[in-house]
Amino acid sequence: MSFEHPWILILLLLAILPVLLVLRSFRIREERMKAYAESAFAGQLLIGANKQIRWMRAVLVIAALLFLVLAAAGPQINGGKEVVKMRGIDLVVAVDVSNSMLATDLKPNRIEKAKQSLADLLTLLEGDRLGVVVFAGKPITNLPLCEDRGAAEMIISSISTESVSVQGTAVGAAIDKGIESFTQSKEGRGKAIIIISDGENHEDDAVEAAQRAAEKGIIVCTVGIGSSEGTTIPETDENGNVGTKKDMNGQTVITKLNDQILKDIARAGNGTYVRATNEDLGLTTIMGQLRDLSKTTKDTVRYSGFTPIFYFAVIVAIALLVLELFLTEGIRNKKQV
After folding, report:
1. Which pLDDT score is estimated for 332?
2. How far apart are CA 165 and CA 129, in angstroms?
């Protein structure tokens, strides 16, 4: 059983207050009885009156209050559950964060489109572990392999072209960084790296890095993000004015998708190349192909939801209050003394 508003249970600690008040009222009553009547006469005031009944009435009221507090906390029980076999893979996504990813040939721009698709990817992960690497002139591991979806969402939302200070497109180094992430992977668990990049200005032998990954049983897939026609790269100056990026000769820089290198990387890594569009980055397609990689399974319990049971506590509280009304401490003695 769990509670929808567990913080309300703190009020249960206040139960000691009515208990103290009851004890005080009983003591005051006895003192007054002793002050105004002898014990023999006091016994004739109420026939059948006794402390046990007074205590019982107090206990019933206090118990009713406790059950009302429980009802307010929203008790609920787990719905039906089932044990399912989950086949998981270890997946590292390496995202290009070079300045060319600011190009707007995909909306709103290449890097934001990649982040949106990564957020959608999280909904497809069941029993999988995800790691995130960002790269430009050098790679950085932003998220080690884990199943923490909350941490993944936070890391993905923080990705920007400022995540790596060194500019460039070191795809090969990003693949090697991804390979390092699998040192703790279990035997038989599928392993894959997905490179999201425009493939432009690559600075190392990414194909050779993909081959090294393949030799270790790691699939390397690539996603080409950008257009073949190319477009300019937005650039903001120190005064906050937005213009276009220029080269050393003052010429406007045009960034184009280099899908050939990305195709070669995927081929060397025994993986798949897909080209991103405004409608789909292609990660769903890749995940569909990677899903059969893993030979390991684990039992995972799924719950169908929660069933509220607060009304049971309310019913018990009402029943206790009704019972308290029918308990009397005694009958007034009408006989003349």
Report:
1. 45
2. 27
